[in-house]
Design a protein that fits this description.
This protein is an all-alpha fold. 58% of the residues lie in helices and 0% in strands. The chain binds a DNA duplex through helix 3, helix 6, helix 9, helix 10 and helix 12.
DNA sequence: TGCCAGGCCGGGT
DNA sequence: ACCCGGCATGGC
């Protein structure tokens, strides 16, 4: 790693500008979005969120009172709607039962404890948990997603085999603990990924990070 | 048109 | 401990 991760962040910020993540109006809306966006484009999620807003379901107790099959129809545009309706129900049940529906209380819990609790909820894995902690809770947690992994492996910064925790640790090892930095950085990596690091149609030769690499360019995609 | 999107779970080896 | 299929709509 000849260049600090700071430089990468600064270059991306210079090129793309602030991303203003998370695109949610309230912490609860961010949580709902975090579940709905799993392996799905944000565009689809927006439609589902809009439908929930139309019927005033973007708050814990209201959503908790909705039947699953009704929820399914409302979130249909987000895809995987049966699965996600149940996942949302689980998350909301957790918030209502464990924290009386208060995100204020929920985010008062220590990060490590809350992370473990979130991971124990059906439908919440590492990325969703961390997205909730960072983007809904404003806590210093770095979010790793498929783009992050792909970008780092294609540039030879980490092994392809690196798992979620290893990738996350890579950022913790090279960055100061800074919520605003974590927030912007993840958003910028996703932005970069969409333009230059898609699973298919990668445009590594045009990648703006190319100039930061010692050998003049990203390695070939796997 | 086919392939993929800001994952996660459960069953099979 | 892996490995893999299933889940589903909408966009390029």
């Amino acid at each position: 790693m000849t260049n600090s991760l700071h430089e990468v962040h600064d270059l991306l910020l210079e090129k793309f500008g602030p991303q203003h993540w998370w695109p949610g109006r309230t912490p609860f809306e961010v949580i709902v979005g975090a579940v709905l966006v799993q392996n799905t484009s944000w565009k689809n999620v927006e439609k589902a969120i809009d439908q929930l807003r139309q019927v005033d379901l973007l708050e814990p107790h209201a959503l908790h009172d909705v039947a699953v099959d009704e929820l399914e129809e409302l979130i249909r545009p987000a895809g995987y709607f049966r699965v996600k309706a149940r996942r949302l129900s689980s998350v909301v049940a957790f918030i209502v039962q464990r924290y009386e529906g208060s995100l204020q209380r929920m985010f008062s819990t220590s990060i490590d404890t809350l992370r473990e609790e979130l991971l124990s909820v059906h439908g919440i894995g590492p990325e969703t948990a961390d997205s909730i902690l960072l983007y809904a809770g404003g806590l210093p947690v770095f979010v790793v997603d498929a783009y992050t992994h792909r970008i780092l492996t294609r540039h030879g910064w980490i092994d392809f085999e690196a798992d979620y925790h290893a990738v996350q640790q890579f950022f913790y090892d090279h960055l100061p603990q800074d919520v605003a930095l974590y927030n912007e950085y993840h958003a910028l990596l996703v932005r970069l990924g969409k333009d230059y690091c898609r699973k298919s149609k990668p445009k590594c030769n045009e990648c703006p990070l190319r100039e930061l690499l010692p050998d003049g360019g990203p390695i070939e995609p796997e």
